[in-house]
Amino acid sequence: MNQLAEPAYVIGFEELFWGGTLLATTMALHGLGMLVVLRVANTLNHRFAPKPSFVKGVFTLILACSLILVIHLLEVIPWAALFHAVDAVETAQHTPSVAFYVALSDYTTLGCEYVLVRHWRLLQPMIAVAGLMTFAWSTGVLLTLAQTFQDQQLALLKARRARRSSATGSSPPERVVKH
């Protein structure tokens, strides 16, 4: 047998404990963050309701996207803090910046040139799972906000058409459905 072979990797309790704790923390932060995003968007939609416009609707969506980005970046901080605290990143540079880079790269499932040391290696796929779940949740929130925006824009378009047709005294043409 080869004497230079690496010893077998065994998942440890400490790794599972910290991975589970950080996953729960990420989900709790995300839940709180999504509530903030929805509250801000609903406040803006209510404020803009008397005179809705395309620009105001797009502004609300862009602000929501920006807030979601900030929330995701904040969710990576606890992972990076652990990576830095325990020197988990296999590199000569043990800086908070490198730890954050590795955590964010793994959170987005992009990955990077760095890996975690053997004792903490399970955290890389666990942070990817956290990222997948939170990005799915964020997508659901954005779809909800986008649907509200689209419904509002369609209602504005319908109202504009109704005003135009009443001003000209004509009714909109009937649609013919072909079978």
**Structure class:** mainly alpha
Largest sheet: none
Strand content: under 5%
- Taken in chain order, the helices and strands follow as HHHH
Overall geometry = elongated
Helices, by number, come to: 4
- Uncertain segments of ≥5 residues (pLDDT<50)? none
Total domains: 1
* Spatial extent as radius of gyration: 25 Å
How far is the N terminus from the C terminus? 74 Å
Helix content: over 70%
Number of strands: 0
- Summarize model confidence as the mean pLDDT: 91
Topology (elements, then pairings):
Layout: H1 13-48, H2 54-85, H3 96-107, H4 123-168
Structure commentary:
By secondary structure, this protein is mainly α. It has one domain. It is about 70% helix and about 0% strand. The protein is built from four helices and no strands. It has helices at about 15-50, 55-85, 95-105, 125-170. Helix 1 runs antiparallel to helix 2. The longest helix is centred in the C-terminal third of the chain and has 46 residues, at about 125-170. The protein is elongated and about 90 Å long.
Give me some keywords for this one.
about 180 residues; single chain; elongated; mainly alpha
Brief synopsis:
The chain is mainly α and 179 residues long. It contains four helices and no strands. The chain has one domain (13-156).
